[in-house]
Amino acid sequence: MDNRVLFIGGASGSGKTTAAAVLAQELGLHCVHLDEFHYPLHHANRAGAIGRDLSVDLTRAICHRVVEQLLANGAACVVEGGWLTVRQAADLMSDSRFSPLFCAFPEADPGERWRQMREGPGAHWLKTYNDARAIAWLERQVAESRDYRTECCANDVAFVDCSDLTTATASILSKMYSLLR
Q: What are the CB-based long-range contacts (under 8 Å, 24+) for 94-98?
């Protein structure tokens, strides 16, 4: 694969981490998980050292810079995480080596989504929540997913509806491969 940065972003719980791992393996590329840049700031927030808004703003700025540097240094990799905005991704598309794709679940039923996540394979952090808290969180993600869809359409950035979790990985991979043609 030539020097390209393949980005999969979007709503938490949409399947982007799973799809990114499969894509990286299929293409023989390294996968950069943007959450790794957030964890230290999240822990600082939980310890009371910095506020939540600052931890989110810093993570977004760091992740944007990481992707810029990957492109500047001719990296070939898959990057996944919800830390780039659609607008940032659209701006980075001025570099033809950057291929962004956002995935979310704007039509999902939060209760059914939670059942699929809870019973499915994988160790998503949401599984540490009780049912009521997880469903409430997923309800907010469904609303955010609708925003992702709207923003992607307005900025001509690829979007995949992953409302059906059982087909999410296949849908994301199919769309990403179509972008690479």
A: 95/71, 97/2, 97/3, 97/4, 97/5, 97/71, 98/4, 98/5, 98/7, 98/67, 98/71
Distance from C-alpha of 177 to C-alpha of 181, rounded to nearest angstrom = 7
Q: Given 3-state DSSP classes, what are the helix, strand and coil percentages for the chain, each rounded to the nearest 5?
A: 60, 15, 25
- For the chain, the domains span 5-180
Which residues are bridge partners to 6 per DSSP? 78, 99
Q: Which residue has the tokens 């925003």?
A: 147
pTM assigned to the model:
0.92
State the angle between helix axes of 16-27 and 168-180 in degrees (0 to 180), rounded to the nearest 10: 50
Phi, psi of 47 (to 5 degrees): -85, -5
96-143 tens-digit pLDDT:
999 999 999 999 999 999 998 888 877 788 999 999 999 999 999 999
- CATH no. for 5-180: 3.40.50.300
